Amino acid sequence: MSNGHRPPTNGRGRVSKRTFLVRRVVALGVVLMLGWGIVSLVGSALAGSDDTKAVAAVEPSINPVINDGGPTTLPPTTTTEPPVKERTVPSTADPAELLIIGDSDAGTFGPYLKTLLDETGIVTTTVDYKVSSGLSRPDFFDWPSHMRQIVPQVNPDIVVVTFGGNDAQGLRNLDESWAVAREPSVDDAEWRTEYGLRVGATMDYLSDANRTLIWVGIPNDDNPEVTARMQVQDEVVRAEVAKRANVVFIDTWARFSGHNGGWAEFVVDPRDGEGKDVRAADGFHLNENGAEILALDIAEAVRADLRDRGATLP
Predict the structure, then answer these.
(1) More confident residue, 220 or 31
(2) By three-state DSSP, how is residue 252 classified?
(3) Is 44 helix (H, G, I), strand (E, B) or coil?
(4) 128: part of which helix (H) or strand (E)?
(5) pLDDT value for 228
(6) What 3-state class would DSSP assign to 71?
(7) Which residues in 246-263 are b (16+ Cβ under 10 Å) and which e?
(8) CA 20 to 30 Å from 297, out of 41, 46, 233, 274?
């Protein structure tokens, strides 16, 4: 007997009110959960980005910085003057902080110098260098600004610095204008004066606040014309060192010269007494042998300072 309604067939007809309401509630719950998940993901991404920036700005990885040619990543706002460094006795519990900075030469002798000083057990070393840089071209790499970032962060007791292979050229300003638009010559008083100001300012900053500064000089070159320019530069640096009793000078020029005072390709290695090729193919830079011999000289200067601070070394 029919009541005028056809029964549902194949499950595709109308459903009861209760079933309909249940489905509505479930669907609404799914929508709410999806919306909450999307908001959470977006919020986490944004928050994570901010947190990462904050950590990078406060806790950069700088100990040690082994820079293979590019500038060290540092927060641009870190420009405060370094605090006065208290002179303490270096020990395993309180090691002396050593900072090595400069051009590619620093990157050449720096790793072996670090190895030598690691053997003392009382020195922590940071190496930071920039290939093709120097004090002549702040428009290429601004060392005065960079030093004012890295020094406050490392807060070193001792700084080893070298500039030279790229500085015997015209002197530019930060805005790319010329300070002295020519290479140095023996009688170039203007170049000597300007370069001396830059070297002196660097020495004063790096040796301030109880720090010991060890300035590593440059070697000569197999090209007499290049050597003549570099000799002017070397003389300017020596003159600035002479004005400052707290700056130690490493005479690289003498170390890698022959008995007649001229350019030398072979030098006796003090580790074994054998004469070894110490020059790179360009006739100026040091190869691995030369860099390690130079590092030995610098390490002796560092050890002398450690002893002066009260450390006991063999």
Answers:
(1) 220
(2) helix
(3) helix
(4) strand 123-129
(5) 95
(6) coil
(7) ebbbbebbebbbeeeeeb
(8) 233
d(CA 5, CA 21): 22
Give me 115's structure tokens. Answer: 């190895």
Residue 29 pLDDT exceeds 60: no
Contact 215, 250 (CB under 8 A): yes
- Report phi then psi at 137, rounded to 5: -130, 70
Q: How confident is the model at residue 67 (pLDDT cuts 50, 70, 90)?
A: low
Q: What is the pLDDT of residues 146-199, one digit of tens each?
A: 999 999 999 999 999 999 889 999 999 999 999 999 999 988 999 999 999 999
C-alpha–C-alpha distance, residues 185 and 179, integer Å: 15
Cβ count within 10 A of residue 227: 19
Q: Are 275 and 95 in contact (CB under 8 A)?
A: no
Question: Residue 150, SS3?
Answer: helix
Q: Which residues contact 23 (CB under 8 A, 6 or more apart)?
A: 15
